[in-house]
Write a structure and sequence with these properties.
By secondary structure, this protein is an alpha/beta fold. Helix content is about 20%, strand content about 20%. The protein has helices at about 45-60, 85-100, 120-125, 155-165, 185-190, 200-205; strands at about 30-35, 65, 105, 135, 140-145, 175, 210-215, 220-225, 230-235, 260-270, 270-280. Residues about 1-25 have low confidence and may be disordered. The chain binds zinc ion.
């Protein structure tokens, strides 16, 4: 596997002058964070997705997190239809054959709600208990948000506040959202779109010091920054330039400066040990 080491972007926080990880006790374990699969039926995307997930599987992660835009809608028609059934099948087949039962947490992206997809149906197809939910794994609590319309969703906000209030202070928390809460890449991406109420979220996390990690996607740019002790990692994309080579910035599938890939993240009982963005082997992007 080709490893692409991320040039870390550091945001001055006043508290943490570098990206030195919040190391601590406990045995570290590996998770993989992938995002923006945008499965299409063109450009050999289903087969190339399987290469990506095969690379994930080889890392033997404890957990795989997919922060959304699993499907691709308006960009991709087949004989005049969006053929979502074919795309769901391609996704399910890639997951079942390559991840082979590895625990997978999915979040909803904006394209997972492209017409005629519906919230309830996409949640069901992605095996989600609802549009937002909590899951505990290896002593961490993962809070998966629905960032679509988050600014208007007072019920989800109240749920999140309640989760943060009732999670024991010694339990580290990771937040997953499709739209970034904090992102350097969003600036590069023409002032890209953050989750609604992101300033309120940043302030909320400052009151709950066990929030250690926020994972997101949407920009297709991999970035990493630390603010108020929280590591914000935007996970690039599995699809790069939406699987297209010709339009990509380097003729090798990249979107701007980020090649197709995913995050490999090491966590311990007390925080984030390491975050690395990696390419995966794909002959189409050589
Ligand atoms: Zn998106």
């Amino acid at each position: 596997m080709v490893s692409f080491c991320l040039a870390a972007a550091v945001v001055a926080s006043g508290l943490s002058p570098s990206l030195s990880p919040s190391r601590g006790g406990g045995t570290a374990f590996t998770i993989v964070h992938l995002s923006d699969v945008h499965i299409r039926m063109r450009f050999d995307a289903p087969a190339r997705l399987r290469l990506a997930l095969r690379a994930v599987r080889r890392l033997a992660p404890e957990l795989v997190i997919n922060s959304g835009d699993t499907l691709d809608g308006p960009r991709d028609t087949i004989a005049g239809t969006l053929d979502f059934e074919a795309k769901w099948s391609a996704w399910n087949e890639a997951v079942s054959r390559e991840l082979r039962g590895l625990p997978l947490l999915n979040a909803l992206g904006n394209h997972d709600l492209d017409e005629p997809l519906s919230l309830a149906d996409s949640c069901r197809r992605l095996g989600m208990p609802g549009p937002y939910y909590a899951r505990d794994h290896r002593g961490w609590r993962f809070l998966v948000l629905n960032s679509n319309g988050f600014e208007r969703d007072t019920r989800q906000w109240d749920w999140l506040v309640s989760q943060l209030r009732t999670t024991p202070a010694a339990t580290p928390i990771a937040i997953v959202s499709h739209h970034p809460i904090f992102s350097m890449g969003a600036l590069v991406d023409g002032g890209g779109e953050l989750i609604g109420r992101w300033r309120d979220l940043v302030a909320l996390f400052a009151k709950h010091r066990n929030v250690k990690l926020c994972l997101s996607g949407h920009t297709h740019l991999a970035d990493l920054c630390r603010y108020n002790g929280v590591t914000y990692a935007c996970g690039g994309s599995v699809s790069g330039y939406w699987w297209e080579i010709e339009k990509s910035s380097d003729g090798k599938g990249s979107y701007l400066q980020t090649p197709p890939g995913f995050h490999v993240i090491r966590l311990s009982a007390s925080g984030v040990v390491d975050v690395e963005y990696r390419r995966y082997e794909d002959p189409a992007t050589r």
